[in-house]
Amino acid sequence: MGKLGLRAATGDDRDLVFSPLVGDIKIKRLTCMKQLGVLDTAFINLEHANTPQHVGGMGIYDPSTAPGGAVRFKGVIANFERRLHKHTIFRSRLVKVPGNVDRPYWVQDANFDVEFHIRHIALPQPGDWRQLCILVARLHARPLDMSRPLWEAYIIEGLDNIPGVPKGGFAIYTKMHHALVDGAGGSSIMSVIHDLEPDPAAVPQAEAVVTADVMPNSVYLASSAAVNNIKNTAKMVSGGVGVLRDLGKMAIGMAQKKIPMPSIKSPRTRFNTPVGPHRVFEAAEFPLADIKAIKDLCEVKINDVVLAIIAGGLRHYLIHHKELPDESLAVSIPLDMRTRRGMTDENNQVGSVFVELHTNIADPLTRLAEVYRSSQEAKIYGENSPLVDVLRLAGVLPPALTRPLVNTYVNNQLTQHLPLGISSVVSNVAGPTFPLYSAGAQMVRYYGLGLLTPGVGLFHLIFSSNGIMTLSILGDRDSMPDPAFYRDCVEKSFNELLAAAKAKQAESLAVASKPKAKAKPARKLKSSSSSAMPNVEKPVAKKARSAASSSTAKSASANAGVAKNGKVVPISNSRP
């Protein structure tokens, strides 16, 4: 493999030569740091041993598409290295300001060690799905080393007894701090670390150019912090005025019933207990065609179908444990704020809204219809409420103030006193519609993993690609000791919803195919005269017909009253 050139920014022309895995690398140093944005800083400030703030994913690969039908570990590392230079986040290391009096900076790490970030492991025998889930859960529970670039990758072999995994197949589990990437940006990162062809060597590669930064001294950081604190204070004042203005507009909209009131009475469940340091992982798979068929038949969105499936899964799970509340559970839905506030230089552009799942409704189609209504109301609320950006509060103040507050909040388990019970976070990420390859091996499945917060011990992540939708389940081990059973509950919910949708479709087709009765032709009135004069009704006959019409109207009115008192709903307004 050829040399990988590193171009760095320094004030001079001095070169630093060192020899990592791929050979000698020459670095010219410069100082071109980037300060973290408010929301990116929020995820750094929220970092805790029990709730590390990284997201992840696991792909499963078929090596038969690679040249020679096999993939070596060195080939996977070489593929990573060849593509790492295409995005600066892989070499971005966190540098804190002395005393934590200002937001930290990203610097390009000149001593980047790819072997530290990419590791090779294997499942023990027999190498089944349960073992893979346990391994991924343990890897995901471990916090990242905050002194290095904030990502890791694990190549996992030994998947010999997992149904559906190709012979010789392997998995790649990656995790990356949320300060570096959000859910909407994660799909672009996937395109960075994957190839579009099984033989990447056949694709001409441009010369790699990578920058590396000089470590700034404390004087520079302290002086920058003083200037930034003045700017931040001004932004906080102007931002506070803007928030108050937007809250006033939202209150007026709610009073006029133009903006729906969000539900704040959701019951608390086992998933609202304090989150510990251990995790569980499971996943279910659904044909994307079935999800779309349900969507089209019920005239809803794909996200609504997913929420209804999760609602049914939670309902079955909590009924089994005799813990289902009488009121509806609610979940938090991340929002991509790029369409709302425009593009910024922050890695994270995400907000959130609450959606009721209507877990208190047994019928799956009725539940889906109510979920659709709730999600539409949440969308309107999210477009008009400044509270969707509430997470930014954790990044506005200096880390010296925020970090102790976060530690006090988590260590003292203050989440138990929150009035609102959010049972889960549900994130939906659309994947590529074309095949992706790693070292020539085609990715055949991908499962996303979110993060847990101190008060929410369950995360669902949906990923769609190449006709398959995966629903990944990440939970706190104390809150959900039986993740495989919960996966069964989710699959049962999907099967119930699909069966109900097919039954509705069959009923609609049967009604449409039923022949309509032909109307009898009107009988012509015979005229006693051959003239074309109209047949004028006699006054007595007209009076009798008027009385008969009045009697029929009264009878219909009486029948309508019985129907109303008997709570008979018109078919056109009834839910399936």
TrEMBL record:
Residue ranges occupied by any O-acyltransferase WSD1-like N-terminal domain in the UniProt entry: 38-306
- Residue numbers spanned by region Disordered: 512-576
Cite the entry's keywords alphabetically: Acyltransferase, Glycerol metabolism, Lipid biosynthesis, Lipid metabolism, Transferase
Provide the leader sequence positions: none
Instruction: Provide ranges: composition bias, Low complexity.
Output: 546-560
Q: Where is the composition biased (Basic residues)?
A: 515-526
Q: Which enzyme class, named as a word?
A: transferase
Query: Which Pfam family, just one, is annotated for this protein?
Result: WS_DGAT_cat
Which EC number(s) does the record attach to this protein?
2.3.1.20
InterPro entries documented for this protein: Acyl_transf_WS/DGAT, CAT-like_dom_sf, O-acyltransferase_WSD1-like, O-acyltransferase_WSD1_C, O-acyltransferase_WSD1_N
Q: What is this protein called?
A: diacylglycerol O-acyltransferase
* Species assigned in the record: Zhongshania borealis
